[in-house]
Amino acid sequence: MMRKLAIAMMLLATAAAAAPPSTCGLGDPYAKALCAYQRRQFADAEAQLRAIADTGKPSPETVKAMYFLARTLMKTGRWQEAANVFVRIYESDPPFYDAWNCDFLLGECRRAMGKG
Q1: pLDDT digits (tens, 9 = 90+) for 35-85
Q2: The CATH number of the domain where 44 resides is what?
Q3: Phi, psi angles (nearest 5°) of residue 48
Q4: What crossing angle do the helices spanning 42-53 and 29-38 adopt, rounded to 10°?
Q5: I need a labelling partner for 63 at 20 to 30 A (CA). Which of 9, 19, 88, 95 fits?
Q6: Sign of CA dihedral 89, 90, 92, 94
Q7: What residue numbers bound the domain in which 31 lies?
Q8: For residues 6 and 13, is the Cβ–Cβ distance under 8 A?
Q9: C-alpha Rg value of the chain to the nearest Å
Q10: Does position 1 have pLDDT exceeding 80, yes or no?
């Protein structure tokens, strides 16, 4: 009985420690978009992330919005659109592209389209 209790407590502690970070509850547009992504509300996330990514204002937040837009497109099976966004990230911020492993994700898009 003690062993089962210990295992249950360990699983509970692990689950609590592994909870994903969340931006839900924050008020800025990027946080709201990321919250929709985290909640798997991909249509809302796409619209909100695209609005940020397409502002044309170069900023770290814009590039992150492009990244999560591409991830959202991948999650909805829109591989070519996602690939185009990863190329756009490379063109606008090569260090971000490298640091956030976008080359691997672009390869996954190409593989899904039968090009890799």
Answers
A1: 999 999 999 999 999 999 998 777 889 999 999 999 999 999 999 999 999
A2: 1.25.40.10
A3: -70, -40
A4: 150
A5: 19
A6: positive
A7: 24-112
A8: no
A9: 18
A10: no
H runs (alpha helix) in 1-116: 2-17, 29-38, 42-53, 60-75, 79-92, 94-99, 102-112
- Residue 101, CA atoms < 13 Å, CB-side half-sphere: 4
Place of tokens 């547009």: 29
- Residue 25 zone, left/alpha/beta (φ > 0; ψ -120 to 50; rest): left
With a CB cutoff of 8 Å and minimum separation 6, the contacts of 39 are 24
Given a cut of 70, is residue 5 above it in pLDDT? no
Quote the pTM value.
0.79
Tokens of 46: 């796409």
Counting the structural domains of the chain, the total is 1
Burial track 25-50 (b if 16+ CB lie within 10 A, e otherwise)? eeeeebbbbbbbbeeeebebbbebbb
